[in-house]
Specification:
The complex is a heterodimer of chains A (295) and B (312). Chain A is an all-alpha fold and 295 residues long. Helices cover 74% and strands 0% of the residues of chain A. Chain A has helices spanning 19-31, 35-56, 68-75, 89-122, 124-137, 146-152, 157-181, 185-193, 198-235, 241-250, 254-282, 284-292. Chain A is flat and about 70 Å long. With 312 residues, chain B is α/β, with parallel strands linked by helices. Chain B has a single domain (39-133, 178-311), classed as P-loop containing nucleotide triphosphate hydrolases (Rossmann fold, 3-Layer(aba) Sandwich), CATH 3.40.50. In chain B, helix 7 (215-232) links the parallel strand 7 (203-207) and strand 8. In chain B, 47% of the residues are buried. The chains are: A mainly alpha (295), B alpha/beta (312). The A-B interface holds A 1-8, 184, 186-187, 189-197, 200, 204-205, 208-209, 211, 283-286, 288-289, 292 and B 94-96, 121-123, 125-127, 129, 131, 133-139, 146-147, 150-151, 169-175, 178-184, 187, 195-196, 199, 220, 223-224, 227. The structure holds adenosine-5'-diphosphate and magnesium ion. Magnesium ion binds at residues 86-87, 207 of chain B.
């Protein structure tokens, strides 16, 4: 009786494009808005200003800074004057060293922080045990940990990884905890009615309900991990992008310094995109919901 | 002041009953035993239930000595002004919170009472929430399959199959694999009722489920609920403040007073089933409307003067 109302056949529907057709469609859509042109123009404007300051007008105080042309020349040169370019193995050693440390630090921070945050959000008791200590340790800037880290861990590698882990651990834990606390009480009630055990509720309500917050947290956390990693590498290190920057500065070669900075920007951006993509993969329900709202 | 005293006596009474219960075997109620003889199930008996909230030492008496009998397989509509304690009553039946005094029976089993202030949550009493509580991270089919899966009455695969079948039966066949956020609120609510029914509950508890819907969607939801009821004959405990809805759907309309909640008047709706939308324009319907309206209006005025804040 009521079935006839249900969203049955409501006329013809045009098939949504998929695969390559979808890509072309999206590209066309994008090019028909002013957005890409504005972005291109913006980038150009920034670069031009940079060039003007350092190379065009050679303003006072800017003349020591390498301009875009000098950097591009060095970066793409087979035999760079200052030692670092796309074609030197050393460049990749630095990038790899930093990325490896980030991967380890981020994995530890996530592996510890997410479960910790989940349990803290879920159980008042666990939260009361851990929260005060966490809140006291959290405001201590990563750099303040440097001496302790060097004392605690042997070698170059361990202290650096420790520092990167620490900062992102706090962010991940807190965001995860907030995520659990943000879950609407009614989902717990519904799960209870449906006959869930505690463990069922944890798996089916607590974890997925907290995911949006967890991934927001992870995005911030990976940024924070880079931040403290580079700081740590600058203080104590033998390799890595942070080390490359100070080392270049100490040796008075300015181009590798800037190359290191720009590389950091790109690598950091890339890692945060990876986190976002994984998040969207795991939260299809949210992606689809937001898409319907035109976001 | 008044509340403080009431709370005190209620508490004292509670203590007394508690000691009594410990000494003598609990008394069986005649009504409850009567029910076991019939095959129908899902008779709710609410006896002298009192609920006092105690936020920060301020006593709020939400339900005061409220008694109600709901027969097995009955559609029972609870009508009352906002903030009068209807949700509180429903939450007590569902086992979301404790009661201060009184007892609630389902068939002849004690849900909550002096010896057990808070009922256990169980699939025999399924709640459909006002704002909808389908898990947004599960598809409609996964949502519906959830109950049998966690109760281990079905394997996950079979549960999913059954969920798909039941959703299709309710006209949701082509959205089974969509997430709740992707379908209309009407569809989501209907799926939520399916999620409740797959567990074969004794009672369906609905708390203003169609409150936020427009009149057209509402009428579709009503017909769909009636059709579901005619099929399953599950006992329905339905909270609303829409009088037309109450009379159109219900066998009995219980009008409750403004806070604290008590039963004010019960109106029996003798319109035969199956009902269709035309019934709403009949003379009988209009007379019932008047009868209910009179009782509710009085309470609405009292509630308005008390400045009761509406809560979800
Ligand atoms: N958790 C609570 N703590 C204190 N007071 C509450 C709580 N929940 C509800 N109340 C109060 O109890 C009364 C009844 O609430 P409720 O049962 O939600 O009313 P209804 O569902 O009939 O609108 C209201 O005055 C409300 O403010
Ligand atoms: Mg309510």
């Amino acid at each position: 009786m009521a079935t006839q109302y249900a969203g049955g056949t409501t006329g013809h529907r045009i098939e949504a494009p998929t695969g390559l057709a979808l890509l072309i469609y999206r590209l066309k859509e994008a090019l028909s808005t002013p957005k890409p042109y504005l972005m291109g123009f913006g980038v150009f404007l920034w670069l031009f200003t940079y060039w003007l300051l350092c190379e065009g007008l050679k303003l006072d105080r800017f003349d020591k800074i390498p301009g875009p042309v000098a950097i591009a020349k060095e970066w793409f040169s087979y035999e760079p004057f200052q030692g670092i370019s796309f074609f030197t193995a050393e460049y990749y050693d630095h990038i790899l060293a930093s990325c490896r440390r980030i991967a380890i630090a981020f994995a530890i921070a996530t592996g510890v922080g997410v479960p910790l945050g989940l349990f803290m959000g879920w159980s008042d008791k666990i939260r009361q045990y851990i929260f005060p200590i966490l809140e006291t340790l959290r405001p201590i800037p990563p750099l303040a940990w440097v001496p302790l880290a060097i004392l605690m861990f042997p070698g170059f590698e361990a202290p650096v990884i420790f520092l990167a882990t620490l900062a992102s651990l706090f962010v991940t834990t807190l965001n995860t905890m907030l995520g659990v606390q943000s879950i609407d009480e009614e989902y717990f009630r519904a799960a209870g009615c449906l006959g869930s055990s505690k463990w069922d509720i944890f798996k089916n309500v607590v974890v997925p309900g907290a995911l949006p917050y967890i991934f927001t947290g992870l995005q911030i956390s990976i940024g924070v991990a880079w931040f403290s990693l580079v700081a740590a590498e600058m203080v104590s290190g033998d390799l890595g992008l942070g080390y490359l920057i100070v080392d270049a500065y100490m040796n008075n070669v300015t181009v590798p310094m800037v190359i290191g900075m720009i590389t950091l920007g790109f690598v950091g951006w890339f890692t945060s995109v990876i986190v976002r993509v994984i998040g969207n993969r795991l939260m299809q329900w949210q992606v689809k919901e937001l898409a319907l709202q035109g976001r | 002041m008044h509340c403080k005293v009431a709370e005190f006596t209620a508490h004292a009474g509670y203590q007394q009953v508690k000691t009594l219960m410990n000494m003598t075997p609990p008394l069986r109620d005649e009504r409850a035993t009567m029910n076991t003889s019939t095959t129908q199930r899902g008779a709710l008996s609410i006896r002298n239930v009192t609920k006092i909230y105690d936020p920060e030492g301020v006593n709020v008496m939400a339900v005061d000595n409220c008694s109600m009998e709901i027969a097995a397989g009955e559609v029972c509509m609870i009508v009352g002004p906002s903030g009068c304690g209807k949700t509180t009553l429903l939450n007590a039946i569902a086992g979301f919170h404790s009661i201060t005094h009184g007892e609630i029976f389902l068939d002849d089993a004690l849900l909550c009472g002096p010896s057990k202030p808070k009922a256990e949550q169980a699939a025999e009493r399924m709640v459909v929430f006002q704002h909808g509580a389908l898990f947004p991270w599960k598809t409609l089919a996964e949502n519906v399959a959830y109950g049998p899966t966690v109760q281990k009455t079905l394997r996950k695969k079979q549960a999913l199959e059954k969920a798909r079948d039941m959703l299709s039966e309710s006209g949701l066949g082509n959205v089974v694999d969509k997430y709740p956020g992707e379908v209309s609120s009407g569809m989501a609510r209907r799926a939520e009722i399916v999620r409740a029914l797959i567990n074969d509950p004794k009672v369906l508890l609905l708390d203003e489920p169609y409150r936020a819907m427009d009149a057209l969607t509402k009428s579709i939801m009503h017909e769909s609920l009636l059709e579901t009821y005619d099929r399953t004959k599950v006992t329905i405990f339905f909270i609303t403040h829409d009088l037309e809805e109450a009379i159109f759907l219900g066998d009995k309309v219980h009008v409750v007073t403004t806070r604290p909640c008590q039963l004010k008047k019960t109106v029996s709706v003798d319109i035969p089933r199956p009902r269709s939308y035309e019934t709403q324009s009949s003379e009988q319907f209009r007379l019932l409307m008047d009868e209910v309206n009179e009782a509710v209006h009085e309470e609405a005025i009292k509630a308005f003067q008390a400045g009761e804040r509406e809560m979800a």
